[in-house]
Amino acid sequence: MKSKYINFIQDKNYEKLKAPAEAIKQGKLVLFPTETVYGIGADALNEEAVKKIYIAKGRASDNPLIVHIAKMEMLDRLVENVGNIEKILIKKFWPGPLTIVFKKKKIIPNIITGGLDTVAIRMPSNLVARKLIEYSNCPIAAPSANISGKPSGTIVEDIIDELDGKVEYVIDGGKVDIGVESTVIRVVNGIVHILRPGKITPEDIEKLNIPVHIEKQILGSYKEGEKVMSPGIKYKHYAPNTKCILVYSKENDKMVEKINSLAQNKKTVILCTSKNIEKYNSEIKLDMGQTLEEISQNIFTLLRKADKYKADLILIEGVEKTGLGLAIMNRLIRASAHEFIEI
Ligand code: TXA
Ligand code: MG
């Protein structure tokens, strides 16, 4: 059966969210927008409902989910202790694209945390997401809306084919604001460990005089059996079916030259910044935008689009790995299965 579709783009009537909120209460799944990417939500305290998320996504059971809340009272019900650094981060960045890992209370089912004794929590700023949580009156577990391994959904059109019928409701809020998933952090001995980079950058956190450590696997590769702070690091992600190569140089001309040379004699799709688009000889070129904000909004949808050409190769321009660029490069390095040429 097809999912019920709610258009929240033109008519922003929050009353329309009451039916999907009711569905959440009844243990069903709802696809909904957040400020980062779309999520597939279920009542976080209902084990059977959460199971359906793993099935819908084809997700590994040891890869834990993020629990979304709308009010601070909800946090106290779910986690053991909120430390001082976490309090500072919450005050500064919630509601917003920051996920914090806490020691969990028993009320959180093990299926959410993949058996870990911690739980990842975030308070989204997107109003549809918040109202959905408020109306359903329960914390909502939600991974990014995509089949496991594929790029996350930033517009409903990209994911409707793979998820239609697997959720009770699809709430279409149009294109999301940020386009990459939330920053995931955990505080250990007074240091903020970045487990997944996002819109809230290491620099944003350092500005609060809090020391930051970036987990090395964020830009490097995961080796079988290696200990990781976040299970998500182990899995293939964001990958189109077509082979991708990521190229970056601080010197723009060198980067363009390298991409042009790799594109020779092949059917190639090039994902590039607006300023360079005229410099490539390839027939198919997709414009990522120019600012880091534009690029982050566009990358997932362009990776999916690039795949549709059934080309021999997708070549992608990299960006500098600072600020939001760190999150962009983390996604692109994984999309290209670590085929990353830096010159
Ligand atoms: O922006 C986002 O965070 C989106 C929207 C829908 O809110 N959600 C999202 O969820 O990206 P997902 O499931 O695709 O990614 C969750 C990430 C995974 O990398 C997972 O390993 C990590 O968070 N994670 C979840 N719980 C954790 C925990 N207890 N300890 C360490 N990492 C955890
Ligand atoms: Mg995901």
Sum this structure up briefly.
With 343 residues, the protein is of the alpha/beta class. It has helices at residues 18-25, 47-57, 72-78, 84-93, 110-113, 127-136, 156-163, 202-206, 252-263, 292-308, 324-335; strands at residues 4-7, 30-32, 39-43, 66-68, 98-103, 118-122, 140-141, 169-172, 183-188, 191-196, 212-214, 244-248, 268-272, 284-287, 313-317, 340-342.
Approximately what portion of the residues adopt beta-strand conformation?
15-25%
Bound molecules: threonylcarbamoyladenylate, magnesium ion
- Count the beta strands: 16
| Name given to the CATH homologous superfamily of the largest domain | DHBP synthase
Q: Can you tell me the number of structural domains?
A: 2
* Morphology: globular
Count of helical segments? 11
Largest sheet: 11 strands, mixed
Write the CATH fold name of the largest domain: DHBP synthase
Would you identify the regions where 5 or more consecutive residues have pLDDT less than 50? none
